[in-house]
Design brief:
The structure holds two protein chains of two kinds. Chain A is built from 20 helices and twelve strands. Chain A is of the alpha/beta class. Chain A starts with 8 loop residues before the first helix and ends with a helix. The mean pLDDT of chain A is 88. Chain B is α/β, with parallel strands linked by helices. Chain B has two domains: 10-323, Up-down Bundle (ABC transporter transmembrane region fold); 342-580, Rossmann fold (3-Layer(aba) Sandwich). In chain B, a hairpin with a 2-residue loop joins strand 11 (545-550) and strand 12. Chain B is elongated and about 120 Å long. Chain B starts with 9 loop residues before the first helix and ends with a helix. Classes of the chains: A alpha/beta, B alpha/beta. Chains A and B meet through helix 2, helix 3, helix 4, helix 6 and helix 7 of A and helix 3, helix 4, helix 6, helix 8 and helix 9 of B.
């Protein structure tokens, strides 16, 4: 699965086809049979007119109707199974890509989400994967169009070379003409469609912000704003619709003229006895039918272009360079948890040196949130520091595989997400120490207020809970993991003062003897730590016990007690 | 517990459609005339081709075909022009109706009581405003005109067959029972299957948003294997349903092929018989066969579109269900508040029957006073805030704003008197200035800057790439939680209500941000009666008065100093908070 060369748009697209080549091949053969069969229907009608209707032979009529039945049975079955094979190839190829994109995004070495919003990545895994997969649908139908064209061509040329050439050579210019009439419209209608999509986006956005609107009584102004957007979009849509109507009318007129031309040439050939009446009927029918394969080619073109653009986006994610390399360093199976940071420089951290003893409960006060985030990212090995080193029990973190690092060091971020599932499942995802952790983080009380207790299903990444409830569940999950080294960042900012003090004491009790770092400015949490270090300008400016710092350090007092 | 928003009945849906068409009846009529004309003209091609066949069969001179050929060309031109005019009229009709409908819908949706929206689940309204509107738009733009054209083509073609000879019509109609049966067979299976498919695709999307959006957490807790498994399962379920869908569709078309065969065979046999009989020419038989062959596409299109039309219809009744709700009633002679006081008497509330979260709350706030609401999570602070702001209606007791009962004030009076800023942040998509103008539609740019300045946001707004014109919100420049909440406070300043309620408006920002926001909130509240739900006790200490709620009741009230001295619940809270400082 993991090829040596990084994925490119071409390789993603080719891979989607070749991984399903058997299914795609069978599908192509079958749907080609279908189009070929459809092309023969006008020919059979012509023959029936010639050999049965004109002659009055009942036997001939029965024979041709039987032939018609066989033809229908054949092409109908071809379509039935061909379409299923094609759809299967398309859907399973999209599924494979969806799984691969998820695997890449979740890869412990990171890097794939850089510069992309979650919604965008989710769209790449759904819509783009689907469009890439759909080449497996487009390809067989493109080949089928070719088959229809071939069958028509042979039938026409066998009747009359001039008529056949007229139809065959006349159709492409007709379609090119239609394409030229349509092209400026397509571009314009793209713009208009965006305008329409924008109007519906505005409506959804207003509905999503309903509580905020109601809070300030802005509903009438919001309605007025939507009405303006809707009117603008209506005007744009009507312009596009008018243009499209004239385009459709022009195509219809052109097609009709072409059929008239075929009738003129065919009629004259038939009148002079060069072709039969049935041939004339078949030629007119085929002139009508031939538009289908050519339309298919147009769609194949557009579909492949879309698939290629989507493949580029998919490949971009798959080939994203990891944020940190792997590593084969090993941590001991029992991690005592001695953490040493020396001379660390990384974006907002400057020459940071810090030692944490095994089992220590350390408070870190970082008034600059960016410095706090950087520290957390480096300790969780989401990034390797630009310079300086971090060692855990003497092993440099940068030599250890990130997944292995996180087995020992758990970073519980301030904005950590909860996932769909019950409250208790979310905590259980952290680790086995569930009950103790629920009590310590006060999440048992959260569960008690919910309709189904701890089995209440959380939706929208825990947004169904209030901020304080969410924080307590997230903290319970981190404590349940019971890692050798735990970092928690601002775990109680939305929790009321009484509960916060309770939680602080519980954290100290649960983590006794295990290295723990609490990054916070909350005095309740800092009061239970063994020691506090203060980061100012990305480096340690002071350290000591919380009461001493409160007494002696003015910067600390402002940061913690304002 | 969820109670979805209403869906209109079929009869009501039709009636509303009628109301939408009535002011546009001349447009509707002319659209119909042109579409019929276009289809009718197009039907002349087949008999003209049949005539050419007859001319050939009668061994007439080659020049004789010139006239019918010219006529075919003329028909093509006429059909093209009539189609262009007809379809653009149809678009004007449909799009105009759609615009009116969606505007009415949004107006009603935004006016819905929040209780009703919440009972239905936040997804219900959002789905209606996005999926249902676009489902109908697709219907109006593609499915319905196509369906209309196809049905018309079918009807007129069958008429054409009857004109050739009524027996051709009988032959062609042999296919109809199979076609109708097939459609009924298909819809019975397709509707539930597609509903399931939509749910599965939605769940797959939700799972991906969950997993991808939470990727840092997944990595930190080493849950990648489990989450890839979840994506695999959800995607697999969607794939299975898609494959069941294509099996159904191919069986549908298989049955329609059978109908085509029977109809075509019958028309050819009828032609054979009538020609032998001498009651029709070869050309007529040809025209009949060509007619029927040219029906293949419209019939398949119409039958396949029945499904789309049905789902557009279902979406329509969901939109009309909401837009048909009665508007909120305003009192005939709304009273005007005399000051900016707040008074509640015996206020009680329960979200679920028998589960009271607030009992007998009596609260009086003097004009210009600032009161802090304090209490543990679940004490009922947010409920009290929402009741006073008129977001929810109390189950018991009364609320008086500015000396006037809220019932006499009416919804729009309440809206102008009191604002509520909650911890929920939403930045409206579009230019920043547009977001702020939701609070005050005619605010000038200096006014906007002044409001931003008051909440301490002018520095970062000026630093934005396009200042006030910077596109923010979904798909635009991303603001931090602190910035978004400052924006909310700036909206409050612009709305300029006499009474303002802040419900933990500073909670989500993290410790550094909440200090910035407390200052901003302080500035935004000055000159107003303020009710502040506080979780940081520094906010309570700065208020004129503190009200402590516990389990839905007011247990203490007084100034900060009084309550600390009284040694009650607040004193304990304060001790827990200030112990560490």
């Amino acid at each position: 699965m993991r090829a040596a060369a990084p994925p490119t748009p071409g390789s993603v697209l080719r891979g989607a086809i070749t991984s399903k080549r058997g299914t795609v091949g069978v599908a192509a053969l079958l749907v080609a049979g279908h189009q070929g069969g459809e092309a023969l229907v006008p020919v059979v009608i012509g023959r029936t007119i010639d050999e049965a209707v004109s002659t009055g032979s009942a036997m001939a009529l029965l024979r041709w109707i039987a032939i018609l039945a066989v033809l229908f049975a054949a092409f109908s079955s071809c379509y039935r199974f061909g379409a299923r094979f094609a759809e299967r190839a398309a859907e399973t190829a999209a599924h494979d890509l969806r799984v691969r994109v998820s695997e890449r995004v979740l890869d412990s070495r990171g890097g794939a989400s850089k510069g992309r919003l979650a919604g965008e990545l989710a769209n790449i895994a759904t819509s783009d994967a689907k469009r890439v997969g759909s080449v497996n649908l487009i390809l067989p139908f493109g080949l089928a169009g070719l088959a229809g064209l071939l069958v028509s061509a042979i039938s026409l040329l066998r009747m009359s070379v001039p008529l056949g050439l007229l139809v065959l050579l006349g159709t492409p210019p007709l379609l090119v003409l239609a394409h030229f009439i349509g092209r400026p419209l397509e571009r314009r209608s793209g713009v208009e469609q965006e305008r329409a999509a924008y109007a519906s986006g505005v409506a959804a956005d207003l509905v999503n912000g309903l509580r905020v609107l109601k809070g300030i009584g802005a509903e009438p102004r919001a309605v007025a704003r939507y009405r303006r957007t809707s009117r603008d979009s209506l005007k744009a849509t009507l312009r596009a619709a008018r243009a499209k109507s004239w385009h459709d009318g022009a195509i219809l007129a052109l097609t009709g003229m072409f059929i008239a031309l075929v009738a003129l040439v065919g009629g004259r050939l038939a009148a002079s006895g060069d072709i039969s009446v049935g041939d004339l009927v078949a030629a007119v029918g085929l002139a009508q039918f031939l538009l289908t394969p050519f339309q298919i080619f147009g769609r194949v073109n557009a579909g492949v272009a879309q698939a290629r653009a989507s493949a580029a986006r998919v490949a971009d994610v798959l080939a994203a360079p990891p944020a940190v390399p792997g590593g084969d360093g090993k941590l001991p199976s029992e991690v005592p948890g001695a953490l040493r940071i020396s001379g660390l420089c990384h974006e907002n951290l400057r020459d940071l040196t810090l030692e944490v003893a095994p089992g220590e409960l350390l408070g870190v006060v970082a008034p600059d949130p960016a410095a706090a985030r950087d520290l957390l990212a480096v300790l969780g090995r989401e990034f390797d520091p630009a310079s300086g080193a971090v060692t855990l029990d003497g092993t440099a973190l940068s030599t250890v595989d990130p997944d292995e690092v996180r087995r020992a060091v758990l970073v519980a971020a301030h904005d950590a997400d909860l996932f769909e599932g019950s409250l208790i499942d979310n905590v259980r995802a952290g680790g086995p120490a569930v009950e103790r952790a629920m009590a310590a983080a006060n999440a048992d009380e959260v569960a008690a207020t919910l309709p189904d207790g701890q089995d209440t299903v959380l939706t929208e990444r825990g947004r169904s809970l209030s901020g304080g409830q969410r924080q307590r569940v997230a903290l319970a999950r981190a404590l349940a993991a019971d890692p050798p080294v735990l970092l928690v960042h601002d775990p109680t900012t939305a929790v009321d003062a009484v509960t916060e003090a309770k939680i602080a004491a519980e954290i100290a009790a649960v983590r006794r003897g295990r290295t723990t770092i609490v990054v916070t400015t909350s005095p309740a949490l800092l009061a239970v730590t063994d020691r506090v270090v203060v980061l100012d300008g990305g480096t340690v400016s002071a350290h000591g016990r919380h009461p001493d710092l409160v007494r002696d350090n003015a910067f600390y007092r402002t940061a913690v007690l304002s | 517990m969820t109670e979805l928003l209403p869906t209109a009945t079929w009869a009501r849906t039709r009636a509303v459609l009628g109301e939408l068409v009535r002011p546009r009846r001349w447009l509707a009529l002319s659209a119909f005339v042109f579409v019929v004309a276009a289809t009718g003209i197009g039907l002349l091609t087949a008999p003209l081709l049949g005539h050419i066949v007859d001319l050939v069969a009668q061994r007439r001179l080659a020049e004789a075909v010139t006239l019918p050929v010219l006529l075919i060309a003329l028909v093509a031109l006429g059909q093209g022009v009539a189609t262009a005019i007809g379809t653009s009229l149809v678009a004007r009709l449909g799009e105009g109706m759609l615009a009116e409908l969606r505007e009415k819908f949004v107006e009603r949706a935004l006016g819905l009581p929040l209780e009703q929206v919440e009972k239905a689940g936040s997804g219900d309204l959002t789905t209606r405003v996005t999926n249902d509107v676009s489902e109908i738009a697709d219907g109006v733009r593609d499915a319905l005109p196509e369906l209309g054209r196809s049905v018309l083509t079918i009807v007129l073609t069958l008429g054409g067959l009857a004109v050739l000879d009524w027996r051709f019509l009988i032959a062609a109609l042999l296919a109809a029972p199979i076609q109708l049966g097939t459609v009924r067979w298909y819809i019975r299976r397709a509707v539930p299957l597609y509903a399931k498919q939509r749910v599965a695709v939605g769940e797959q999307q939700q799972q991906l948003l969950d997993t991808v959006g939470g990727a840092p957490t997944v990595r930190a807790f080493r849950l990648a294997g489990e989450h890839v498994g979840r994506v695999r399962a959800r995607s697999g379920a969607a794939v299975d349903l898609a494959l069941r869908g294509i099996r159904l569709v191919t069986r549908f078309f298989g049955r329609l092929n059978l109908a085509e065969l029977i109809g075509l065979g019958a028309v050819l046999a009828t032609g054979f018989w009538l020609v032998r009989d001498g009651s029709a020419t070869i050309g007529t038989a040809t025209a009949a066969a060509l007619y029927f062959h040219s029906l293949f596409n419209p019939i398949n299109a119409a039958l396949a579109l029945v499904d789309d039309a049905q789902s557009a219809n279902a979406s329509l009744s969901r939109l009309i269900g909401v837009s048909d709700l009665p508007p909120v009633r305003e009192p005939a002679h709304p009273a005007v508040p005399v000051d900016s006081s707040v008074k509640t008497a015996g206020l009680g509330h329960s979200y679920v029957d028998g589960h009271e979260v607030l009992h007998g709350v009596d609260l009086e706030v003097a004009p210009g006073e600032r009161v802090a609401l304090v209490g543990a999570s679940g004490a009922g602070k947010t409920t009290l805030a929402k009741l006073i702001a008129g977001i929810h209606h109390p189950s018991a007791g009364s609320i008086t704003l500015g000396g006037v009962d809220v019932a006499e004030l009416g919804p729009s009076g309440v809206r102008e008197t009191v604002s509520l800023i909650s911890q929920e942040v939403h930045v409206f998509a579009g230019p920043l200035a547009e977001d702020l103008r939701l609070a005050k539609a005619d605010a000038t740019e200096p006014e906007l800057h002044l409001a931003l300045d008051r909440v301490g946001a002018s520095d970062w707004v000026r630093a934005l790439p396009d200042g006030l014109s910077t596109v923010v919100g979904d798909g635009g420049h991303r603001l931090t939680v602190t910035q978004s909440q400052q924006l909310a406070l700036a909206r409050l300043v612009l709305t300029d209500p006499p009474i303002a309620i802040l419900d933990e408006a500073t909670a989500e920002a993290g410790s550094a941000g909440s200090k910035v926001l407390e200052k901003a909130a302080d500035a935004a509240l000055s000159g107003r009666t303020g009710l502040v739900v506080a979780h940081r006790l520094t906010q309570a200490a700065g208020a004129d008065r503190v009200v402590v709620l516990d389990a839905g009741r007011v247990v203490e009230t007084g100034t900060h100093a009084e309550l600390v001295a009284a040694g009650g619940q607040y004193a304990t809270l304060w001790a827990a908070w200030s112990d560490h400082r």
